[in-house]
Amino acid sequence: MTLRVTLAVAARVLSQLRRDHRTVAMLIVMPALLVTLMWWMFHDSPTTFDRVGGPLLAVFPAIIMFIVTSVATLRERSSGTLSRLFTLPMAKLDFLLGYALAFAVIAVVQALVVVSIALYALDLDIQGAAWQLGVVAVLDGILGTALGLFASAFAATEFQAVQMMPAVMIPQLLLCGLLLPRDQLPDVLHAVSTVLPLSYAVDAVLGVAQGNSPVAEMLVVLGFIVAALGLGAATLKRRTA
């Protein structure tokens, strides 16, 4: 891995995104719109929104980042761009880290927007500091990016990349504690939830909401990010079959 190459890949991805206004709008605006929709649904029950609003700040960015990055990476491979890039002195990890770094920049902006709207426009009640919630939201966006990069290795078309979302993200959405606290799940499902990264992303947000330190959960999420990028580098194909 070479830092110069990694940064060059990140700059290339950001340049592409800068010209793709619809994708940028989806990445930055969509999580805030979805959280606002949930606030509107529970407008007459603010305590319910306070309970689910925090976890939504982990779930929505991760899901949206997963979809966009998995499709974007598959497009690079199916178009032959990835094969041409690998004729240069570039390792697979350079490519994946470059993508992750570029989308991390987007995740920072995404987190600033969605957290600011949730706290100051929708009056989401949390006991922790706003900056802690922002850091967790950024990490959750990067988690979605890393999982998307890893999942794209198993898809042959962009349509298949989208199909990976129900297989990878929906079970995590159901078991992460958003719909039902994890300690109330059946024993088998609770055990499954403990090995799913989104569970710890939601736990980190809940920790901030309750005024607790989310450091342990954030470290676990970071571990999942590193593992997903490492596995993605090991399984990345230069072109589709």
From TrEMBL:
Predominant location category: membrane
Coiled-coil residues: none
Annotated transmembrane regions: 24-42, 54-74, 95-122, 128-150, 162-180, 218-236
Signal sequence interval, chain numbering: none
Gene Ontology cellular component terms for the protein in this record: ATP-binding cassette (ABC) transporter complex
Pfam families (UniProt xref): ABC2_membrane
One GO biological process term: response to antibiotic
Keywords attached to this entry: Antibiotic resistance, Cell membrane, Membrane, Transmembrane, Transmembrane helix, Transport
Every ABC transmembrane type-2 domain range: 18-239
Xref: InterPro entries: ABC-2_transporter_component (IPR051449), ABC2_TM (IPR013525), ABC2_TM_bact-type (IPR047817), ABC_2_transport (IPR000412)
GO molecular function, one term: ABC-type transporter activity
Cellular location(s): Cell membrane
Membrane topology according to the record: Multi-pass membrane protein
Family per record: Belongs to the ABC-2 integral membrane protein family.
Name of the protein in question: Transport permease protein
